[in-house]
């Protein structure tokens, strides 16, 4: 096993290395996206081979612990950023947070810790359809506990006993993977003198906690009140990044309020004068006018955006890239005073924040989701992405009248509900509401589309497109007569 995995690892490492070199050259944004997708696929293969090699080493008793000093805040940020493209392609929030009480420098096996956490966070992203994933570090009397939270389906009690066994995968698992990740994570945690525990609630999510002992090389200086006097509003729909950002601002000395939706945020904005407002894409567009009024009263508006959102719509003022790094937050806020801007020169206007049409994307393959999402965003759509049919129906049903979906792109073969069954469920919701206009629905599939046309029409599908995804075919659909039904 070890010989075979080493032989496989060598060419895969070459692919990853060469794509990294290619990314360091001058590429257009579109070319860089394609190269990152290639690198992501190669890294997935590399991880699978690595899992097999680790199992071989553990079974052979060839485990060597290497201690070195490392910064836990940097490690958490790097892991979150590594997995952010996959999470964001699925429409998930992903965030990291390190308590200021965690020592600044620890001594331990950082490489093994990284491997454990990448396995856990990667699994959480894989099995979570809506909501998000968060990685948090807090101190313990003997070391640090790292908690990986998700808003996934939870794990039924009957699956818990076999969960940490070899080659075990979740019941709804699709895509790549060996099923070795959790088994390896537990073995490594125990070899490092720690524990790996799980708390899960079906329908709500799971939390994996890794408690490990460490030697402290440099203790934390403790919370520094560098934001005293600031009054901050965090308007973010994210389950982890919003609350953790609010916590970080409060620790820094600010007075902070958190609003998880546009309605709450608009109400908070009018109740007092804020020195700063942090707002994400999900909350921003429905409350554009309230933001403009707040800016004119002196608020410093800072947008929380993903790379895809930046490519699609630009940046209407100050912004932080998601997932937000603690150092990036501090650098931005200290770069300019928190003082009130000139009221005659608001930092942005309504023209800078146009209300773009909203599309629903349901695709369980991360690379395909990235491709389709990018094409839609290039065409001017705001995209809400989910990775199964049930989540797509729930997203459609939960959309507000003020911000409805005006297009749906569905994979044919998805967990829980197929693209056809998802379409039928959406049509039933429309009928129950007495909708005058049907949302255009496009189904994509790797199968031969000709035999599917009649079945698709019977379920209420407007168009069927083949995989690999053809951007010209999508453009033709977006400019066709079915789009005239929107209104």
Give an overview of the whole structure.
Residues 3-216 form the Histidine kinase domain. Keywords: Phosphoprotein, Two-component regulatory system. There is one protein chain. With 487 residues, the chain is an alpha/beta fold. It has four domains: 1-63; 66-218, Histidine kinase-like ATPase, C-terminal domain (Heat Shock Protein 90); 231-352, Response regulator (Rossmann fold, 3-Layer(aba) Sandwich); 358-485, 3-Layer(aba) Sandwich (Rossmann fold). Helix content is 43%, strand content 20%. It has 17 helices and 18 strands. The chain has helices at 2-23, 29-59, 72-89, 110-127, 157-160, 181-191, 241-251, 262-271, 281-284, 288-296, 307-313, 326-335, 366-378, 389-398, 419-433, 453-459, 471-478, and strands at residues 68-70, 93-98, 105-108, 132-139, 143-150, 195-201, 205-213, 215-218, 231-235, 255-259, 276-280, 300-305, 318-321, 358-362, 382-386, 407-411, 441-445, 463-466. The protein has a five-stranded mixed beta sheet, with helices on both faces. β9 (231-235), α7 (241-251) and β10 (255-259) form a beta-alpha-beta unit. α3 (72-89) packs parallel to α4 and α14 (389-398) runs parallel beside α15 (419-433). The radius of gyration is 24 Å and the shape is globular. The termini are far apart.
